[in-house]
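Is fe (ii) ion placement plausible here? Inputs below.
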Amino acid sequence: MQGAGWLQGRGLQGGLSFLESNALVTTSNHARLPRLGLPDLGCGVGFRIPHYAHVFENKPAVDFLELISENFLVDGGLPLKNLDRVLAEWRVVQHGVSLGIGASTPLDWEYLRRLKALTRHTQTPWVTDHLCWTRVPGADLHDLMPLPYTEEAVRHVAERVRIVQDFLELTVGLENTSSYLTYRASTLTEWDFLSAVANEADCGILLDVNNVYVSAYNHGFDAITYLDAIPKNRVVQIHLAGHTNKGAYILDTHSDFVVDRVWELYRHALQRLGSISTLIEWDSEIPDFDTVWGEAKKAAAIRNEVARTVGTEGQDEHPT
Amino acid sequence: MSIQPDATLAEIQAFLGALVRRSDNLGASANVDAEAEIRMVIAGNDRLTPVQQAEIYREQFWLRHRDSLDEDFPALSSWLGQDAFECLARAYLAAIPPSSWTLRDLGVAWPAWLDQYEHFPSGLGPVARELAHLDLGFITAFDAPARVPVHAEKVATIAEDAWPDARILLQPSLRVFAFKHAVNGYRWAVRRGDIPGSLLPAKPTWIALYRGEDLRVHEAELAVGEHALLVQLAAGATLSYACEQANALDPEGVEAQLGGWLSHWARRGWVVDIVTKP
Ligand SMILES: [Fe+2]
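Reply from A.M.:
I modeled the complex. Tokens:
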């Protein structure tokens, strides 16, 4: 989908008129390519401390590993040695949690300088973090706080993403988060907000399909509508994970297997998006490595099946 | 703060940032003052009220930071017990809000804050303060910068008369402590999974934490003079000044063992350079 055309016919409030006259309508060349022209790495696993020993010893032939950037933004010691051991054997992508791209506090240049040095070292093909805010003046909440879906927030976030991308000289992928509250101030749907930010910032999207499911449950929207609305060429990576259903809401705990409905949504997303690097996140109650890798293999099987049946442009069969 | 319906993004964030750092459940009577403002900002849905939605984030803020402190301060946590530990963690987070982007830094100010804290449960304070410093030492030594240890050839070239004015530069990961209790033994017992007793008799203890070749943090017991010497050298003193200061505490030790200590430090990679006067 090009320019602002994706906005039409979605019943958006008049407030979006600002989008038609500004930089959003210019479409960069890379936005015409699937995944913004970035590679499909296959199906990978988040690299987590309980698995280090197993991974180093057994060298599993996993397609790629995702590193949490913050775990390696240290001055010395074992984390840096582990990093180099990983880089010697596997392709990696970097995923962060501390960028706070939606915060109203200034960008943290010390963090960004360290992040840039790490991206140079890891040669990550893109870098991701969350579409959220994490800080207020005087305090870092260390949480992925949801943004109000407003024009003001679109402009604010998009401008900061552009600055960060220019500085890092790397495509930034913004991840949709799971959220547990909605704001009265919001005038856009979450998917229109995500799309507007990504288009205006000319950045990538890390589509967390589980987060779409969780937020759809928590806020009562339709997950399929969401998946069908986001700008398809901007999705550079997909996350899949498990969660915890508390009844009145779902908490994004990354503590379990991917649920059946999320697998269905994943299949649906692939039919539209083509083959996208897919990563399994498992961050608490972490089972053995092979169990997590098994989820990645399941994702790979679905990808191959969709590629065979849909056979659309941009879908490459990838070995499991 | 008071929030208005047309609040800016920054105002909404400041409002929520203060809300999630409150110590009591947002549904509790202590927070009834905030309810009208929460309703002005947060929409809620048919399953959760605006207050309940905000409470999810408040609870997660507390659990995340409590867990991080609990993981980083295992000995302190064991010594105090869960209730007292959580009480102190809440007080610390309220006094010194998390300010770094990394949770790794969450507890860096806690030991110094505890040094000034006066409301420990009866008798627990002196050991608690020492355990806090020891726990933090393990955290900061683990990922401190590494420098290449000094080469033996360089040491051999230093003229005899250059040593008194020499400054010995130490590995950035080296930490030295003087404790009044054998808190290191207590910490190891906790790490082994033992449940140590609730009594820790007074016993003067001097220890160093250092990162070994295996990149794990190890500890070494020090003589009192050796500890004093390392403290002086780390502060930039010349060898002769450091020896004078250490000598006052441990005259026999410094004189008899200085050479042995130096080679011991070098073998463990603690010495990264020896700077002599030009
Ligand atoms: Fe995710």
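Short version: Chain B touches chain A through 50 residues (CB under 8 Å).
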